[in-house]
Design a protein that fits this description.
By secondary structure, the chain is α/β, with parallel strands linked by helices. The protein is built from 15 helices and 15 strands. The strands form two sheets. Strands 10-11-9-8-12-13-15-14 form an eight-stranded mixed beta sheet, with helices on both faces. A seven-stranded parallel beta sheet has the order 3-2-1-4-5-6-7, with helices on both faces.
């Protein structure tokens, strides 16, 4: 009896490089290849392929940037080249990651099934602004997203955006959360810190945050919170990550009177600083596991990888109650509140906190954060309890469990 031919998947993302979407793209490529023939496609290779999967990679070689005319020309060139690539690979299903790839995927549709993966809130994303943001949310998404065979959101709270704001049929939209390499992360978290960094952790309770230094991650208020905390008790704050706000954040820290260590300046690492900017780390988890708290002040999220990985490390986590993501992870049986929370909420798997984005309430919200962090730092038993529960929670998001749902979806779409 002839062996059944494997179906062909084409996966599209605008660019590679460093980022949560690119990491998820890699995971999807690796896991789905176990059942399907997977080809990856990218608009260009301006950024290096930091997360290679080993699967075939097609570069459409269409640049980004330029003036309005250049962008329009490049957009339609991408549509034509993706359509040709779909024919070349004989794709049965084309899955796109990130908005730019979604548009091109939909406009190049032929006989293949199309699945979009929405990895973040569209309504709450402050980067979608101005005339172009209006065009995207009011015209392009409503007009194009309805053409998809399925739209997968990484958070349950993104689903109403797709259905209500963009008019997509409810039956086409479902949630499949991000997945995590639980065993790998936990294993890497056991690696000891270098002696000079361990000395920092040994002298005072340590808070760690891990994320890009970017507007979305909203780290600036965390510096004010930490400065207020230092007036009450000793502590250290460690940033793992880098980004476009590096100079702004280090400058703000110094303005607040904080002693700042910057790894890129190659200064001797000693316990004499207050705030430590450690840049990108090949193994961020070894910084998180021994910390007293993981703090996550993001302004908006999808289903945050950094928060989930901190939970795998067994960290007690304190996070903003973003419109999507953290509540599902820390308090899955509760609904998103109609009004933003203004007090700390001790959830089942961590602590949900007020957002730090509203100018009118910022001072009061920062005080709630400072009070809550101080309370947790004086209660090691509670930190241990929350950390153990957080680690247990992340067993719900292993690759095996999450990608079984992806296979079920793909098989369903293929027979429709």
């Amino acid at each position: 009896m002839q062996k059944q031919q494997r179906k062909k998947l084409l996966m599209v993302i605008p660019n590679l490089g460093l980022g949560g979407a690119q990491r998820a793209f890699h995971d999807h490529s690796v896991e789905l290849q176990k059942r399907y023939d997977v080809t990856e496609a990218v608009f260009n290779l301006d950024e290096p392929n930091i997360y290679p999967s080993g699967n075939p990679l097609e570069n459409m070689e269409v640049a980004g940037g330029g003036n309005t005319l250049d962008k329009a020309s490049n957009f339609w060139k991408r549509v034509r080249r993706l359509r040709a690539l779909k024919q070349k690979t004989q794709a049965d299903v084309c899955i796109s990651h990130l908005e730019g790839a979604d548009y091109v995927n939909l406009l190049s549709k032929d006989k293949e099934k199309i699945i979009l993966l929405i990895q973040g809130s569209k309504v709450h994303d402050r980067n979608i602004s101005g005339p172009l943001g209006w065009l995207r949310k009011q015209v392009m998404m409503p007009a194009l997203y309805r053409r998809a065979d399925r739209i997968v959101t990484v958070s349950r709270d993104i689903m109403p955006e797709i259905i209500d704001a963009f008019g997509v049929e409810a039956g086409k939209v479902l949630t499949i959360h991000n997945s995590f390499e639980v065993e790998r992360v936990w294993g890497q978290a056991q690696e000891p810190l270098p002696a000079d960094m361990q000395a920092v952790y040994d002298v005072a309770p340590t808070l760690v945050t891990s994320a890009r230094l970017a507007v979305q991650k909203n780290q600036a208020p965390l510096l004010q919170i930490f400065a207020d905390l230092l007036k009450r008790r000793p502590a250290k704050l460690v940033f793992v990550g880098d980004g476009e706000l590096r100079d702004e954040l280090t400058g703000k820290a110094r303005t607040l009177g904080l002693r700042v260590y910057e790894v890129w300046k190659q200064e001797p690492l000693t316990p004499d600083y207050d705030v430590y900017f450690m840049g990108l780390q090949q193994n961020p988890f070894k910084f998180i596991r021994p910390a007293d708290l993981f703090v996550f002040p993001s302004g908006w999220e999808g289903f945050p990888l950094a928060l989930g990985e901190a939970m795998i490390c067994g960290a007690a986590v304190v996070t903003t109650d973003c419109p999507t993501g953290p509540r599902e992870m820390l308090s899955p049986t509760t609904a998103t509140p109609t009004n933003p929370i203004r007090t700390a909420e001790w959830a089942e798997y961590g602590v949900l906190m007020p957002m730090l984005t509203e100018a009118d309430t910022l001072q009061a919200d920062e005080k709630v954060w400072t009070d809550t962090i101080e309370q947790l730092l004086t209660d090691p038993a509670e930190r241990q309890r929350l950390g153990q529960l957080a680690r247990r929670r992340m067993e719900d998001f292993t690759h095996k469990k999450i990608f079984q749902r992806w296979v079920e979806l793909i098989e369903q779409v293929l027979v429709e």
